[in-house]
Structure formats: C-alpha cells, structure tokens
TrEMBL record:
Provenance organism: Shewanella vesiculosa
Keyword Ligase belongs to the record: yes
Record protein name field: Bifunctional ligase/repressor BirA
Residues of the whole record sequence present: 79 to 319 of 320
Recorded name of the encoding gene: birA
Record GO terms (molecular function): biotin--[biotin carboxyl-carrier protein] ligase activity
Annotated ranges, domain BPL/LPL catalytic: 1-176
Protein residues bound to biotin: 11-13, 34, 38-40, 105
Keyword vocabulary terms for this entry: ATP-binding, Biotin, DNA-binding, Ligase, Nucleotide-binding, Repressor, Transcription, Transcription regulation
Length: 241
C-alpha cells in the first residue's frame, strides 16, 4: 500500500477523491494540517497543527452501493478498537459515526463515495482524532470536545496511525465477508445511547423515543409509541432527550 503524506492539504478526503484512478484499497493520505477539513452535510472539521490525526483511506468494495450501508459504523467500531489497544478508556460511539471520550467528541468520521457501479463501489474513509488540543484551538468548536492528552500515557502518533490502518483494513475485509452483523457486539458495547431517551432531529422534524441499538443494515432502532421504527443515516442527528 501507499501513504501520501502532507504537511498541509485542503482535506485528506479531497486529496484521495481527486486521485481514485491510481489508488488501491488500503492506500492512505495523512496530513499535519487541513485548511478545509470537512464534516458531514457541509460542516467543518477543525484541523489545527499540533500532532492531531487527519487521515483518509481508500477502499474498493466488490459490490454495489447498497452493501455499503452501515460501513461508517464499522469504521467507528474499528477506531475504538485501535484506540482501546493503546489503553484508552471511556470511549463511546454515537450513531451513526462519532467517537466520544468521556461524553465529549474525540473523533469524527466522514465516508464519501468516489464512484459506484453494479460491480464495485469506491470509497474514501476519512477520520480526524484530537490528540492534544489547546483551549484556544478548541474554543472554535461549537460542541463539547475532548482529546487524548488527558490520558496517563499519550500514544505515539505514528504507532497509533499504523494500528488504525491495520485495524481498519482487517475490519473492512470482515465487513465484506460477514456484513455488519459481525460488529453488533462491538457496537453494543460502546453505544452511548442504548436504552436512553433520545431525540432524532431530521430538520425541521424531530422524533422522540428510546434508543434500541442498530440493525444489521446500520439503521438506528427507535422505540416509539407506534412501535419500533428504523432510521438510516444521512441527514439525521441524534441527541440525548
Ligand atoms: P454531530 O456531531 O453534531 O452529531 P455530525 O456527525 O454531522 O454532527 P461531523 O460531520 O462528524 O458532525 O463533524 C462536524 C462537527 O463536529 C462540527 O460541526 C463541530 O460541531 C464538530 N467538530 C469540528 N471539529 C472538531 C474537532 N476537531 N473535534 C471535535 N469536534 C469537532
């Protein structure tokens, strides 16, 4: 595999999306700084200098796009596994794709589709992880955030990247063979909202209910007065009620 390393780039996802014809599954792009880090729905990922992780990996699924449903949940499970291997405790997952440390946002995931046909789907899987954020840098983030610096021993960034890369590749292969079902135990172990009252915000609408985990397609299961309803990702935001 190849690694494209930048001191500075606009966004590691954008770089890989611009070079997909040359890429193989597992190729990655890493940057020290992103001038235009991206989140979902046109939102921004704050990406200052300072040993934080900004990385993207290319992946070619041997199936149409319908099989990619739930993949961003796999990426969340995978990052949690890699961080746990470094002794990080207090991690949690928020559907569909945020990673929390002690209930504050530690990392974000952005999966983008580069190309899709009946035979294959090319994906760019981006993730940002806060390593050691100053109050000044973090002051620009409009929700509670955390970083790894509060840990007893801060993981070495290169070793963490190698572990993340290895774990992601293994998990994506498992996902291709077995589907999301192989990750449900891991998801349930880290699911921050399981059995809690939540609001699903689908602007301008909002649905309340009790979170009952996910199904094998990655849909959120919500217990409402009308029974269990399922919701697939995309435009939906989850909040504690
Ligand atoms: P939400 O986290 O509100 O459910 P989302 O999943 O759509 O929304 P993402 O695309 O994962 O959001 O990330 C973008 C949001 O994350 C930003 O709008 C901001 O609130 C927050 N954010 C941006 N940069 C960082 C950062 N470095 N660390 C933690 N949170 C950040």
């Amino acid at each position: 595999g190849r690694c494209f390393y930048f001191d500075e780039t606009t966004s590691t996802n954008a770089f890989l999306l611009g070079h997909t014809s040359e890429l193989k599954s597992g190729d990655i792009c890493i940057a020290e700084y992103q001038s235009a880090g991206r989140g979902r729905r046109g939102r921004k990922w704050l990406s200052p200098y300072g040993h934080h992780i900004y990385a993207s990996m290319f992946w070619r699924l041997h199936s149409d796009i319908s099989k990619a449903s739930g993949l961003s949940l796999v990426v969340g499970c995978s990052i949690v596994k890699a961080l746990s291997a470094f002794g990080v405790e207090g991690l949690g997952l928020k559907w569909p794709n945020d990673i929390y440390l002690e209930h504050k946002k530690l990392a974000g995931i952005l999966v983008e589709i580069a190309h899709s046909s009946a035979q294959q789907t090319e994906l760019v899987i981006g993730f940002g992880i806060n390593m050691s954020m100053s109050a000044e840098q973090g002051g620009l983030i409009d929700q509670p955030w955390s970083d790894l610096s509060s840990l007893m021993s801060m993981p070495d960034k290169t070793e963490l990247l190698i572990q993340l890369h290895k774990t992601l590749k293994t998990d994506l292969q498992l996902f291709e063979q077995k589907g999301l079902g192989a990750f449900l135990d891991r998801w349930n172990k880290y699911d921050l909202f399981a059995n809690r009252d939540v609001s699903l915000i689908m602007a301008p609408n909002c649905v309340n209910g009790i979170c009952r985990g996910i199904d094998d397609q990655g849909a959120l299961l919500l217990e409402t007065d009308q029974g269990i309803k399922r919701y697939l990702g995309g435009e939906i935001s989850l909040r504690a009620a």
